[in-house]
Design goal:
Blueprint lengths: L2 E5 L3 E3 L4 E8 L7 E7 L6 E7 L5 E3 L7 E6 L4 E6 L8 E8 L1 H8 L9 E2 L3 E6 L1
Parallel strand pairs: 2-11
Antiparallel strand pairs: 1-3, 3-8, 4-5, 4-9, 5-6, 7-8, 9-10, 9-11
């Protein structure tokens, strides 16, 4: 059974930090990319960041570049999203999802012809002002 389980969401003040985790099981971790997406109330889903587990290449949305860092521990089948200098506009449910690296980048960039293969259930991040 494929599972992606997010954790680490919390309530934090603006300027604070959180680290989200995405624990993966049920498929060959190294063959996939893992993406972090977020959905805020009243807004469309946004691709935040992704990492290819085969070569470590990464992508960041402009809105988080320089503040968020994605990393992968292949031994633990876990991907992390370190979020620093959090802003109220970062408030959202954060989801991790898995797909082939090319598909993941396409979805990150908003290409609706593609879709992620597997999704987690999300973790809530709330940033207070």
């Amino acid at each position: 059974e494929v599972q992606l389980v997010e954790s680490g969401g919390d309530l934090v003040q603006a300027g604070g930090s959180l680290r989200l985790s995405c624990a993966v099981s049920g498929f060959t971790f190294d063959n996939y990319a893992i993406g972090w997406f977020r959905e805020a109330p009243g807004k469309e889903r946004e691709g935040v960041s992704c990492i290819s587990n085969s070569d470590g290449s990464t992508y960041y949305a402009d809105s988080v570049k320089g503040r968020f860092t994605i990393s992968s521990d292949n031994a633990k089948n876990t991907v992390y999203l370190q979020m620093n200098s959090l802003k109220p506009e970062d408030t959202a449910i954060y989801y991790c999802a898995a797909a082939h690296p090319v598909t993941t980048i396409a979805v990150m960039l908003g290409d609706q012809a593609y879709g992620m293969d597997f999704w987690g259930k999300g973790t809530l991040v709330t940033v207070s002002s």
